[in-house]
Amino acid sequence: MNMPDMPTCLIAEDDIRIIVRRLGAEIGASYRDCPQQLVVVGLLKGAFIFMADLVRQLELPLAVDFLGVSSYGDGTTSSGDIRLTMDLATDIAGRDVLLVEDIVDTGITIAAVRRLLECRRPRSLRVCALLSKPDCRRVDVQVDFIGKEIDDVFVVGYGLDYAENFRHLPFIGTIFNTNKLPGKV
Ligand code: 5GP
Predict the structure, then answer these.
(1) How high is the pLDDT of residue 82?
(2) Does 24 reside within a domain?
(3) Per the domain annotation, does 127 fall within a domain?
(4) Which one of 1, 32, 95, 119 has the fewest CB atoms closer than 10 angstroms to its CB?
């Protein structure tokens, strides 16, 4: 069996920690006068590690929930086809909601999720993304808090996968030779 090449490090563990701490401070400051409990919604699966680290940086009353969406299948290019795989357990009507996303690429996923959640009439809805690829944007979507902008490269690790590989890596890396990955035919 072909073993995958180890991803090349793009953002080291220590640098991720600095980024998440800075995002926590920015978000904390912007919700300082929020009169009610914030609902932090993580997009599965990619945001699960980022979300766990981010909420521990927030000194605010908050609840967490998760929304399952899938857009990429097992490839590395966006299909533009968004599927809801798991809905929220929380009624967000009248609530302040912070949507947490791993990476914004074309913007199609976050635009679709924003539309879906806005229909449920939250009091406010903001978006936090760990990573953003501004050169890849195909739809104009508002991202209120961005951890780091990166070039148009495919990244894995810290929750992000390629065909379900590499989510567990503590750093964010790039893979170049996707033909050698397990599951690739
Ligand atoms: P968009 O709809 O903005 O094009 O894509 C957003 C989703 O595609 C992200 O939530 C993520 O799951 C996936 N995605 C986009 N770029 C990358 C990438 O570089 N690496 C990985 N692993 N997933 C990505």
Answers:
(1) 80
(2) yes
(3) yes
(4) 1
Q: Is 160 in the pocket of ligand 1 (CB under 6 A)?
A: yes
Write down the catalytic residue from 53, 96, 102, 105. Answer: 105
102 lines ligand 1 (CB under 6 A): yes
Instruction: Please tell me whether the overall predicted TM-score, pTM, comes out greater than 0.85 for this model.
Output: yes
Q: Which two tokens stand for residue 139?
A: 């739809």
- What pLDDT, on a 0 to 100 scale, did the predictor assign at position 8? 95
CA distances from 113 to 43, 93, 107, 168 (A): 9, 15, 10, 25
Is 163 within a domain? no
Cα(160)–Cα(46) distance, integer angstroms = 5
- In-domain check, residue 56: yes
Residues in the chain with pLDDT < 70? 1-4, 71-80, 177-185
Q: How many domains does the chain have?
A: 1
Question: With a 6 A CB cut-off, is 101 part of the ligand 1 pocket?
Answer: yes
Cβ atoms of 161 and 140 closer than 8 Å: no
Q: Which domain holds residue 36?
A: 13-150
Instruction: Judge whether 65 counts as a catalytic residue.
Output: no
CATH of the domain at 26: 3.40.50.2020
